[in-house]
Amino acid sequence: MTPETTQPRFEELLRPVARESTVSEVAKRLLDQLAEGRLAPGTRLPSERVLAEALDVGRSTVRGALSALDILGIIEIKPGSGSYVRQTTSDLLPQTINWGLMLGQPRTHDLVEVRQFLEVITAQLAATRALDEDIDRLEKHLRRMEEAVDDVPTFVEADVAFHLETAEIARNSVLSDILHSVRSLLQVWVARAVRADGTTATTLAEHTAVFEAIRSRDPEAAGAAMRAHMDSASGRLRRSLVSPEAGAEAS
């Protein structure tokens, strides 16, 4: 019989980071361990104090790093309870890491701005290239949003699916790959913004305008409708997001 091996505790696997390290660097250190599957979905992470001691950083820095991972959808922070590994992990985690860790830095708004332009171009191409069967698929996502106006998680899933379907209809592999690579980020963004403002009805109306323009094969109208949606959605997003680093500085 082979002797039983004792698995090291999560915090024992972490190495101290330099004092000048940013919140982003701490988030990467935590992510290295989480990405290796050392903790099962639903597992509670060690406390901020324990993590801070293991990494040799301040608790405010750990708090900021955890907030960044929460925004990414990798962990879930439950007030008064702790931080937990999410039940599901994106199958595109390696791609989203490079984008997602920007959320702990001032470049957050730049990333939001890039997404706005990508979505507008995608809608214009979709209106130009949509086939009848494409319109049918896109409409199913819109109808699902209609049915879920009072069910935020389902509404968010349908919202994200609508955007990804639009990218598929555009038939541009680069645009499609980029939007797929930020899928988990996009879902968390939408969920935060919709929950914060309770604007499922407004969001639905904006998507309906985009859909109608694509169905009419009117690229100019599709671009305008998506631009209006992005302006509105980005405003909601900016109001709902709290910079982890700003939070760390204020602590």
UniProtKB/TrEMBL annotation:
Keywords: DNA-binding, Transcription, Transcription regulation. GO terms for molecular function: DNA binding. SUPFAM superfamilies: GntR ligand-binding domain-like, Winged helix' DNA-binding domain. PROSITE patterns: HTH_GNTR. Residues 222-251 are annotated as: Disordered. Residues 20-88 form the HTH gntR-type domain. The keyword DNA-binding applies. It holds the Pfam family GntR. PANTHER family: TRANSCRIPTIONAL REGULATOR, GNTR FAMILY (PTHR43537), UXU OPERON TRANSCRIPTIONAL REGULATOR (PTHR43537:SF5). This is DNA-binding transcriptional regulator, FadR family. It comes from Actinoalloteichus caeruleus DSM 43889.
